[in-house]
Amino acid sequence: xxxxxLKPAALKAIVLNDIxxxxxxxxxxxxxxxxxxxxxxxxxxxxxxxxxRVHGAGFPALTDADWARMVGAICRDTDAGLVPDFDPxxxxxxxxxxxxxxxxDLWPQFNALAAVPLLAIRGGNSTLLSTATLEEMAERHPxxxxxxxxxxxxxxxxxxxxxxxxxxxFLDRAEVKST
Length: 179
Description:
three-stranded parallel sheet
């Protein structure tokens, strides 16, 4: 959002994966809660089971192979064993968020993207990007395309189902518009 507001000509097209100008506090609180007590599985299989147990309700559409790919993307094997692979500063940043106060929004920055082809993908079970925010995004950016991925939460796995083809088709259409 900010890059688009600062240098809109630098962007030919935008794909937002379950994020928008408004972030729901409930979803952010869930992420903070999970990161605060991120489990330390000993094996890959244990990590897959843990992810399925913790996030399964939000991602009922995932197959065993999808869960394994997710764990492969969010964990790495080290000499100390399997560890979560995310920026530790994220935990500190989220620890300082006061959820009793409204979170800031990025509507002015989003509005600056009006001329850029935009695809917004929302997980049908997302608690981070609400349906209401997605609808307002579409009102403010009439050319925006949307995809709702049923059976997935935040953030949908972009390599599942027919998402790769839909994203590629959007980017092809965006390229045609920009030439």
